[in-house]
Specification:
Blueprint lengths: L22 H11 L11
């Protein structure tokens, strides 16, 4: 099976090890990093 050939050399994203306890600091660090997605609420 072809997908198994490079299995050990493929990059896998590690799973989150801890749950976020302080969301305010977590969101602030994401803003500093520039990777915070904002969904605007459209009131029509």
């Amino acid at each position: 099976m072809l997908f198994k050939l490079n299995h050990d050399r493929r990059h896998h994203i590690p799973k989150q090890r801890r749950k976020v306890g302080n969301w305010r600091d977590h969101d602030a660090s994401l803003r500093r990093r520039g990777s915070l997605t904002v969904w605007p609420k459209l009131d029509s």
